[in-house]
Amino acid sequence: MSRKQIIIGIVANAGGVGKSTLAVHLAYELSRHKTTVALIDLDPQRALDVFCGLPPATPATSIVGALSKEFTGDWTLVPAWDLPNIEVCQGHPSMARLADDLVIRHRGEYALADRLKSHPLRHDVVILDCPATMGIICENAIAASTELLVPIQLEMKSISGVADLVEWAISITDDLKLDPSPQILGLVPSLYDSSRAIHRQYLQQLPEITEQLRIKLYPHIRDSSEFKNSSANGLPLQKYRPNHPACSDFKEIAKDIIKLSKG
């Protein structure tokens, strides 16, 4: 059965909310269902390199090369964890300078979308790990995406800003005249600690917020030191501690993405 390619932009307006954690573990969960995945690191902090245990790339062999004017269509993709169905287009710190160039470049907001259209990747799912800023790199991700995921930390800043982030994403789709426009697949509460009363309180408030925003609320991703331990070893938790309960936290999102890819 042929599949529709799904491009997932993971967006947030703050750092430390679990974007890269979500990207990496979602990719691994999808791969377990015979789904091919490309991870594209759009963040100059290049967290995916660490999570995937990869050495630093050069600008030419990173996403910076793919978005340069000299790009000829040869994507540089590196296998993650020696798995044939997960590949990474690595990030690079010079992505921050490239962002300045995209601001003045013709169709700069569509650079990534144009690349993926002119030189499509073979993968069933492409996951875009975005920087924690609502700038032109995130605009590129929105323009290229078919769906968006919004991880949110159970803290006042994240909770109060989620409506602004959703409204900003919608306004970008309008400004860029995207047709079809990417749909917000859902909100993902991350770093949830059940022992903290404030986390339990905010988690109880989220259904009302997501109902008002008319987007889906996914089950929370729990906080665990094992995520840090696994990333320090360059592995997803599913490989580092396959029996850890948090490994199941990504299943429902993966299930929805697979359903979308099958049409």
TrEMBL record:
Domain AAA: 7-174
Protein name as it appears in the record: ParA family protein
PANTHER family the record matches: COBYRINIC ACID AC-DIAMIDE SYNTHASE (PTHR13696:SF99), P-LOOP CONTAINING NUCLEOSIDE TRIPHOSPHATE HYDROLASE (PTHR13696)
One Pfam family in the UniProt entry: AAA_31
UniProt xrefs under InterPro entries: AAA_dom, DNA_Partitioning_ATPase, P-loop_NTPase
CDD domains: ParAB_family (cd02042)
